[in-house]
Amino acid sequence: MAGQTVTITTPDGSFEAYQNGAGPGLVVIQEIFGINQVMRDLCDDFAEQGYTAICPDLFWRMKPGVELTDKTEEEWNQAFEYMNNFDIDKGVDDIAQTIDYARRTGTGKVGAVGYCLGGLLAYLTACRTDSDATVGYYGVNVDKYLDEASKIERPLTLHIAAEDRFVDKDQQKAMIDGLEDNPHTTLFRYEGVDHAFAREGGEHYDAEAAGLANTRTRKFFQDHLG
Hints:
Layout: E1 4-10, E2 13-20, E3 25-29, H1 37-48, E4 52-56, H2 73-84, H3 88-105, E5 110-115, H4 117-128, E6 134-137, E7 156-161, H5 169-179, E8 185-190, H6 207-225
Parallel strand pairs: 3-4, 3-5, 5-6, 6-7, 7-8
Antiparallel strand pairs: 1-2, 2-4
């Protein structure tokens, strides 16, 4: 099934999203590189699993249609510039609007899954929206938002890279300590792997850890989204 570009209208304006599949909704939250081939491939994979996968363009307020890779220093610098100027709160608002869109246009429940910057946004999605089930991969700066953990009322899974270059051991411990008492939250820590261990083709891709994390994610969504 081929994906398509759809438009989501919000009180702040309209932005595009990549969409593929049919079934329960799943908002796929981008990394710092925009909606690139990696994100489209993830949507296509989730579509094959039976979901309506939707990846919203969260950088649209700065520049619509950002599409970078992790292959050159120039693109990394651009990606970090977008991340540093990104409004986290507005991003979560856009995810909430995408969830609403998925509920209006799809069938059944709606969840979310995010990677890198999207891992943080996935955590905040669990805190601030009505996502039915949420997964975050190697989210950065989650420890800065632990005061919102008490708002999590639906299932959340976080995948943590033990050797994450962007999330040191103290930050990881803070995440684990801050979330371990929340009955809706499950954390998995993967030893010996770095940030973005699940990004196929990436420098730190680890097939074994990625396979385990993705298997856990698949079961999690099967259990909670149906």
